[in-house]
Every structure is written in C-alpha cells, then in structure tokens.
Amino acid sequence: MKILVTGATGKLGSKIVEAILKTLPASKLAVSVRNAEKAEGLRARGVEVRQADFDHPETLDKAFEGIDRLLIISADGDNETRIHQHTNAVQAAERAGVKFIAYTSLANAKESENLMAPPHVATEESIMKTGIPYSFLRNNWYFENEIGSIQGVLAGAPWVTSAGEGKVGWALQQDYADAAAAVLVGDGHDNTVYELSGPLLTQEELASALGDILGKEVPVQQVSDEKYAEIMKGLGLPDFVIPIVVGIQESIRNGSLEVESNDFEKILGRTLPINESLNQLINTISQTK
C-alpha cells in the first residue's frame, strides 16, 4: 500500500505526515508538493517527494501514479480557483487508478451557507462521481484561527466578535491531522462522511474557558459586522481580507459551524477537552513570542 498526501508542507499537511509516520514506515508514504525543496527534510527521512501543481494536470498524473490511497488537502484561494484545482486533482486520481480518496472538507458542507462551502460541495460531488471509495473529513474550525484574538486577550484586550450566539466546534489542527492519518492508514472508512467537530461553544463560552485558564475575566465585546470590519481594518488586516473575516463571523452567527458530532471520538478513541486544547494553544503562542 502506498499513501500520498498533497500539500504536505503546509500547516495541516505537515502535521498529517508526521502522524502517519508514527504508524507507517516512510517507504509507504509519498507527498506531492509544488516546491520540492521545501520537502527535502521528508526526502531525507525516506519519504518519496513528488512535484505537482494543481493548476497543471500533467504533473498530477505523474504524482499520483502507483498510489493506492490519496489525501487531497483543500487548496487556498478564491472559490473558483479552488473548484478548478480540486477538480484537476480528482480527475488525475481517477486516471491514475487511485483506490481510495480522502478529502479535507468543511463542516456540514452540503447544507452549509458558509461563504467557503461551494468548493467543498463541488469537490465532494466530483469525488463521488468517480465511483472511487472516499472519506470526507469535514473539518469544523481550527483553534489556531483564533490565535490573533487570544494574543489580544493576553495583551489586555477584550474578545471582539460579531458572531452573536453562534456555536463553533473548535479543535486543534493536530486533532484534525490525527483523524486524517487514522482514516488513511486504517480500514473500514470507505464511503464515509466524518463531521469532525469539537465541543460546541459560543464566543462567550470560549472566552470564559480562556479566562479560567488565564485566571482572569475575559470581557466579550459583541459588535455589528460593520464595527467588526472597522476594528479588523484598524488592526492592519489587508482590505481584501476584511470581507472574508466578516463573512466568517456572519456564517458562525447563522449556525454554519454548529454541528454536533462524536466522529472525532469514533476515529481517535478520545474526547477533546476544551481546556486541554486551549492550554496547548496558549503554550504554543508563548513559545513563539
């Protein structure tokens, strides 16, 4: 069996690769990356490094050759670009005779009104059309997405949000990585959809849990989307990012990430206590200062 992970030098991809290497010998793992130089460390450890670009299908044909199980990590970019790139990857997997495709999707993708949902819906449909056994890893939301807010709180600022009472199933990237690795190396995951969601929390509940760890009250400032955009602009976020971060707040407020599920526990055999996750994240922030 040969497994290949795309985007293997990214933040999530690198964690997935490390999780797989805890279970499988390096000789059974290949990675596809746009810039092979960034993966030299993996090559030195015996992982096969293949150069591939989602915008160039011929490179994908070569990269996926002889691969049994493939993980397509969703690419970055606008929705149209992502749909095009993901479709290229799925079609190349079909041409290469890949026997199993796992894909990092989004919470409740098919019904979601999240502004980032369309590429995930299109990719899931594209994979299903091939008839290849699949597993959709519908990742809820990374705790790491809140690093800026946590840094603000550590500096004495309130927790600022326009997400209202919307709930989120936050989990660490490492948890998502461990789940993806378990699905790739394990059996019994054909034609599955996993809603990978941590304990559901509102912004107030997350701020309260953060306050418990820090030993201080964390005030929550609920603002309008317009005010949130103004604050984010004041923090130096580029203009093109502002509608995206505001859109995310709006979609959380509308319940797009409120997905209750025990699939993490099913796959990993463990729960994800909120305080442990937050502690790990705070330690990471402290170490990178």
Distinctive features:
seven-stranded parallel β-sheet, 12 helices, 289 residues, single chain, two-stranded parallel sheet, 11 strands, globular, alpha/beta
Question: Mind explaining what this structure looks like?
Answer:
This protein has 289 residues and is α/β, with parallel strands linked by helices. It is built from twelve helices and eleven strands. The chain has helices spanning 11-21, 40-44, 57-63, 79-96, 117-130, 147-154, 173-185, 203-214, 225-234, 242-253, 263-268, 274-287; strands at residues 3-6, 29-33, 48-51, 69-72, 100-106, 134-139, 141-142, 159-161, 170-171, 192-196, 220-222. The strands form three sheets. The chain has a seven-stranded parallel beta sheet with strand order 3-2-1-4-5-6-10, sandwiched between helices. A two-stranded parallel sheet has the order 7-9. A two-stranded parallel ribbon has the order 8-11. Helix 3 (57-63) packs across helix 4, helix 4 packs parallel to helix 5 and helix 9 (225-234) runs antiparallel to helix 10.
